[in-house]
Amino acid sequence: MTPRKIIIDTDPGQDDAVAILLALASPEDVEVLGITCVAGNVPLDLTTRNARIVCELAGKTDVKVFAGCDRPLGRALVTAEHVHGKTGLDGPDLPEPTMPLADGHAVDFIIETLRNHAPGTVTLCPLGPLTNIATALTKAPDIAGRIAKIVLMGGGYFDGGNITPVAEFNIYVDPQAADIVFKSGAPIVVMPLDVTHKALVTAARNDAFRGIGSPVGIAVAQMTEFFERFDKEKYGSEGAPLHDPCVTAYLIRPELFTGRHINVEIETTSELTMGMTVADWWGVTDRVPNATFMNEIDADGFFSLMTERLARL
Ligand code: BDR
Ligand code: CA
Fold first, then answer.
1. Residue 285 Cα, ligand 2 centroid: separation in angstroms?
2. What is the C-alpha separation between 107 and 219, in angstroms, rounded?
3. Residue-level pLDDT, tens digit, the chain, 313 residues
């Protein structure tokens, strides 16, 4: 099978970093056309820095990395240094990147790439707030019908929220953008907290990453060790949830995940529930399904895939 062409839209973030590494390690499954950065976990100057650090760590300095939107559509930027540290990529001691950013704006790259490829052949993989994707859809509405799929990390239903009681970080940071994306008509697959909180890096899984013995394996172990403290303290969980790698793992092994095709709407007006993914899991409305919302993962299969692939880099 020819590899699926993807654009990774991201705000690295240690878990974004691992998601990118998994994709770069899997050329027979995915071809990374470009990485588009957005403000989210940390401001844009750091997400563009971190994305390039990750490419260099993987030895893939030819990947195009673009800077995108530096703030949400209609709200002030909320960041997550309390989870990811001051740089967003705290943990390993990695060199400053030397590869340059690609010329042009991330939003234009997304639009041009979708227009220059046959309809239904480019998949978008958002791992952060949806600002770049929504801006592209607004600027060029014709691209909605050309997107093969949007596979994104965001939201939650059974697990509620992680930044407010009901909102997950990526959706909360830019609810207007999420609303545009969920109403775009493009096929959407969602990896919500319900799934990602089951993808935990236990001590044994962390040992497996470290046991790879390569700079990538050791850096991944150090990254997950750094950001596990947040979830351990908050949820009493066994380790760090690998949120964003669920997106790239789905592209490689979709059978690791199960969910339902349902209607998902985004709360954009109430401050109390801002950014909530109102998921009609039980089909209690007649609203038209617009997203496949996952809720189960084969966690052992997921971590075997991660370890096997990361060992290639
Ligand atoms: C999401 O928010 C970020 O902190 C992570 O990188 C992930 O994309 C989890 O809520
Ligand atoms: Ca992210």
1. 31
2. 30
3. 799 999 999 999 999 999 999 999 999 999 999 999 999 999 999 999 999 999 999 999 999 999 999 999 999 999 999 988 999 999 999 999 999 999 999 999 999 999 999 999 999 999 999 999 999 999 999 999 999 999 999 999 999 999 999 999 999 999 999 999 999 999 999 999 999 999 999 999 999 999 999 999 999 999 998 887 777 777 777 788 999 999 999 999 999 999 999 999 999 999 999 999 999 999 999 999 999 999 999 999 999 999 999 999 9
| DSSP bridge pairs for 278 | 265
Count of all residues that appear for the chain in the document: 313
List the domains of the chain with CATH numbers: 4-310 (3.90.245.10)
Backbone angles phi, psi at 188, to 5 degrees: -125, 135
- Which is the catalytic residue, given 82, 84, 105, 243? 243
DSSP state of 256: G
Is the Cβ atom of 174 under 6 angstroms away from ligand 1? Answer: no
